[in-house]
Amino acid sequence: MLLGACGGDDDAGFAGPLIGEIAPAIDAVEEELGGPQQFFEVFADLNKVSVWVAMDDATRAVLYVWASDELTEVESRPAEGETFVAADLDIDADDILDQVLDDLGDNVTKFSVIGGEGDIVQYSALVESDRGGILEVVVDGDGKILESGPL
Q1: Which secondary structure element, helix H or strand E, spans residue 27, and what is its range?
Q2: pLDDT digits (tens, 9 = 90+) for 26-44
Q3: 103 near 136, Cβ under 8 Å?
Q4: CA-to-CA distance for 91 and 1, rounded, in angstroms?
Q5: Alpha-carbon distance 123 to 102, whole Å?
Q6: Strand order in 60-67's β-sheet?
Q7: pLDDT tens per residue, range 116-145
Q8: Rounded to an integer, what distance in angstroms lies between the CA atom of residue 85 and that of residue 62?
Q9: Rounded to an integer, what distance in angstroms lies between the CA atom of residue 48 and that of residue 52?
Q10: Most buried among 22, 104, 124, 133, using CB within 10 Å?
């Protein structure tokens, strides 16, 4: 379950990805489509949440964007890959980035959730340096850094 907004109490001034809007975005998609869905990816950036819904036995992905409490269907394209359901999400949006922020600073611009092999969910944050480099940081549901590497 997702709760709250991004950043814990120690990160009061941090205005990062809209992680706290992931749950409302998923709820809006599922309401729009009439029930639980399979998802390829859900990612939050600084302005919106993008939700890639798996359709037609996960052979097509439909993008919905959640911004300013409004849901918009944007595009559809062929797709393949692992999926997940909303019930698979197990993070606290208030704390998920605490270790990333402590170790790498507050340049987190995106947070992504994707389906992984074996019915797991993978979480990652993108950290952009002041010099233009981008680092992908994979975390577990508690925010522990599992691995990182440049994009």
Answers
A1: helix 22-33
A2: 999 999 999 999 999 999 9
A3: no
A4: 6
A5: 17
A6: 70-78, 60-67, 49-55, 38-44, 108-116, 120-128, 134-139, 145-150
A7: 888 789 999 999 988 889 999 999 999 999
A8: 15
A9: 13
A10: 22
